[in-house]
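Researcher: I'm comparing several assemblies side by side, and this is the next one on my list. It has 1197 residues spread over three chains. Same procedure as the others: predict the full complex and return the structure.
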Amino acid sequence: MAEAILTTLRDTWSGYVEGLRLVIPRLLAMLSVVAAGWVIAALARAVTGRALGWLRVGRLAERTGTAELLRKAELPPAERLFASAVFWVLFLGFLLAGLDALGFETLAALRSEVGLLVPRLVGALAILAVGLVLANVVWRVVLLAAVNSGWPSARLAGGAAHLLTVTVAAAMALDHVGFARPIVLIAFSLVVGAVMLALAIAVGVGSGPLVRRLLEERLARHGRSESDGSSHL
Amino acid sequence: MSTILSDELLSELMAVGQVDVLVGLPTLNHSDSVGPVVRAAHVAFNRELARERTALVNVDGGSTDGTPDIVRDASIVDRETLVASQSLRTGHRISAPYHGVPGKASALRTVFAAADLLQARAVVVLDPEIASVTAESVVALVRPALAGEADFASPAYARHPLDGPLVTQVVRPLFRAAYGLPLQEPLAGEFGCSGRFASRCLDEPVWESDDLRLAIDLWISGMAAGDGLRVSEVGLGPRRLTARPRPAVAALVPQVLDALFTSLRLHEARWTSLTRGSLPLRRSTRPASLPEPGTTVDAEAYAALFGEGLAALGPMLERVLPSSILDALRAAAAPAGSVRLPDELWAAVLLELAASHRHATISRDHLVRAAVPLYLGRVASFAAEVEGLDPEAADERLEALCRNFERSRGDLVARWTAPAR
Amino acid sequence: MPDDLWYKDAIFYELHVKAYSDGDGNGMGDFPGLLTRLEHLKGLGIDCVWLLPMYPSPFRDDGYDISDYCAIHPKYGTLEDFRAFLGAAHERGLRVITELVINHTSDQHPWFKEARSSRESPKRGYYVWSDTDDRYRGVRIIFRDAEMSNWAWDPVSKTYYWHRFFSHQPDLNFDNPAVREEIWRVMRFWLELGVDGFRVDAVPYLVEREGTSCENLPETHEVMRELRRLMDAEFPGRLLLAEANMWPEEVRPYFGDGDQFHMAFHFPLMPRMFMALRLEDRKPLVEIVERTPAIPSSCQWGLFLRNHDELTLEMVTDAERDYMYGEYAKDPVARLNLGIRRRLAPLLDGDRRRIELMNALLLSLPGSPFLYYGDEIGMGDNVYLGDRNGVRTPMQWTGGWNGGFSTADPERLYQPLISNPVYGYQAVNVESQRRQETSLLNWTRRIIEVRRSTRVFGRGSIEFLNPVNHRVLAYVRTLGSERVLVVNNLSGTAQAVELDLAGLAGAIPIEMFGRSLFPRIRERPYVMTLGPYDFFWFKLRWL
């Protein structure tokens, strides 16, 4: 009996040691890959940050209003954010490669899934980022045009344009990731439809005559001469 | 190497040879208005400049409405003028396309190149959109350079003080603050100059710049502030523009502001380093102010637009104007329906806008559009200020505004040259 | 800011003090008289005046035999007169260079008198002595019409002394440090007075070595390098101009690495200009310019048509010399010392067009031009006056008493005026030509003005276009982005020429005198027509 126990223990421990003997090199390999990945990702972050600074991306972000948005969201400035994104994407890639080095099949499967997801995620983030910038630009353009044309509720018009653009961008981003597609589609349609309906009601029904009169008064006040600015020269 | 002068134009210039007076006429689809301008130049050549060697050079940007043919065929129509006109020399009238991006900048560059090659003593550039061009006005613009008295002759039009507020409230005072040159019409589309001035402009390296296309008229006026140049102002009568549709105020104001600020940027080395005071101008008799304004100013509507614009564009304006100025503007907007924008505040606003444009604090296009309500507020304020005053007294107020801007020159240079906020 | 390379843009004017203007009425030109004529030089557009020797001298070689280096010949005035003239010239922006005749002195110079007095004299080593005339055998004789040998017997010290020129001009011994020190003292004397530089006479002959031609020896360059170094250290911006009648590649060493002479005359070019004109063929001219080696960027060639000497034909082949004699000096009396002793206008038969063309070449080829006094009005010469005196006659200022040169009796003049009906002072004088807008004087003033409007002529490179028509000499001068096209018709008949200007396609030629526009240059050959002896200078602009 004692011998059986000893044999079992011996076999178990030798198996265990054998397992360790197999795993430890892989673990070391994984750690070295992750460490190297961290260094490379950090370097890339530094280089990206420098490059973006040299390209004056910060100024561009200020001018387009993106910087303001980021400040409101308590996010770091645009160039740091982007550099961080570069860091994390690269580091994640090395992390997955490191996991691969461990040789576990389940992990390999997970890595494949993540590997497929990450590019789409990056794409979605890019779509969202572009959408946010565009929304800001659209907001300004609509607002300025409305103000300078004497349009009533210029702020409402600018805000609506901004909301619409952000909604479209968000929907496109979620669709790109493939996340709950039917729900996203329905929600998007509802939001856009509601905005359009509200505007239609505001202009055509109920306060339609009031709005119409206001518009006419405004336009009459400007007079035909304001359609020709030569008197200002 | 790209050329300024087309072969067609060059061969015509060769035939002309040296001239005393060159009249440049840039056109692009001006068939409706160019005829009288050409006739005015023709009468000027034949009557007042009969002994001089003259040439009319029409540089066309590719008209599709027959403008060059009209230029070539336009002649003196009334018998009386025909009989009285006796030029001693062969008249030269050239119409040829110019190279480069269609626009006044390329056209003027071609005119200056022609003037340089023909060694013109005096050059006059006419604007086909000005309907009030006469032979007398052409000669008036030619004389200072022809007599060797000036290198640049700017027109001064008879106006009512309430007319042309974009010029009187914005362009004129800021131009004066920057260059120390008290021109009445820095934005005039017509002017006279010496051959020397034309050559100097031609030698500037900015002709390929996109910015120049926007700001050519103001850039030319800014060149007149250059070292060693003599500037004169010539009194012409009231100015009438042709009946062409022009941009609405909402589009015109941003255009002019963009041009003004861009021209300051193009010339920044020149005007930021000036240490002298106001340049003396040779002036012919300043035309008397017109008794009545050309159009009425709807001060109430402008004041309302000013208030609404200020409110709606607050977040945007916070990026370009200091809070003290913004608060002062908000205070100026109350009580609603009226606005009092004093000279000092208006000068501060324009200076900040100019500097923000220079540094592109926000998109330049957005900045100049955001300035429209502020401009309308200033127009309303000025209209209220001079209500009841006679034109001479109102003119005095305009002069006071310009002097105010001159006093702010130091601030303008400091803000312009400081790093971006 | 002073321009140390001023000589690259300068127009030089050579004159003889004795021949220019007499201020004291003794029949010989002097410094007071010369001072009164500075406005003429200024008006002409001259930048620098080169004075022929004005030092005390027995005048056996027209002043090139110097008996006192640090004084002014009494006939020309005093040192004070010279100072006054120099000051007046500088006030008008005119520079002045003088002669530095250092190869030899007059035998009347105190140095030589002392040197010959005894073999133990401390000055003995200042000159080159020999007990026999066998040394330096085979060295050529320069004044072969006047001398039989380069050695002369000195009856005083009973030895021979070396002389490359006239026998009364013993050569200094530059192997002697004391001689070099003396020369530097002489230079310093004049530089301190304010002269702007020196034309160094007969520089190739300074040093002798057995078994050589005794010309252009390395030791000569050492001497010049030393003098240049001393001058630059104390008097920067002054000029050293070499007179070295050699082939261009032999003159090249005199520039050193920009550490010897600033300038040197281009002797071989001059006869070829005359030859090209007579042959109606650009070949001799193009060949010599293309043969001319590159020189340091701070250095410059000096170009000239005529000067105080004979039109030298040393630097041509025998066949070329025969041709030149046959065309330009049919009368042997005009020939002297392998050259032709005539002025510019008589050489060109008084043909205004040829005179203009030659001046145009002088002013447009690479180098700084030297005008000889009187050539601006087309003065004539007198070949019967002996030696080279025929081209050194009094300047003709007016048609009146002594041509306005002097108030003295005509018989008292140092030399008679030219008085024949064609070139005489009554017909050819400054005053008449000043009043006539189309005169040669006014034309010369205008062409100098046009030349001065650009630096490309003095500082630019040259590229010959070689059209099939050999009568047309065409070249492009380039300096940075500036380009000038020069086209010359060397023949007496109208010519048409096709020029390959593809490399300049797009440019507009603007004729520089009237600023007329010519058709734009294209890839295809550019056809031009020129009248007899016509020339064009085109500024090329890309517009």
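Model: For your comparison table: The radius of gyration of chain C is 24 Å.
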